[in-house]
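Readers of this paper often ask what the protein records in our data store actually look like. An entry from our holdings is shown next, in its original layout:
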Amino acid sequence: MIRTYLDAGVLIAAARGEAPIAIRALEILDDPNREFVSSIFLKLEVLPKAVYFKNSAETEFYEAVLDSVIYWADSTDSLVEQAYKDACAFGLAALDALHVAAAASQGSLTC
């Protein structure tokens, strides 16, 4: 199995993107050789706007994908501290750094 950390870009592309990007994102999500890893940061990044704007199809899509996540990274102080270090070292935006730290904590990031 390929352990894959889900990022918002893949989900948004699959839900709202235009072909061929949406097609490629859906291929990744439908790959039977993958097990998905994520964090609360992804949920926070994609679901609130879909819920707020009452986009039920998009909300249901995100929820279905999130239900397939096998491993969830814990949001801990040490993870946030690692994200801060990564952000400073590599010039990452805050949420991107949190995703990188969460992915690394679940063994789904190779540098």
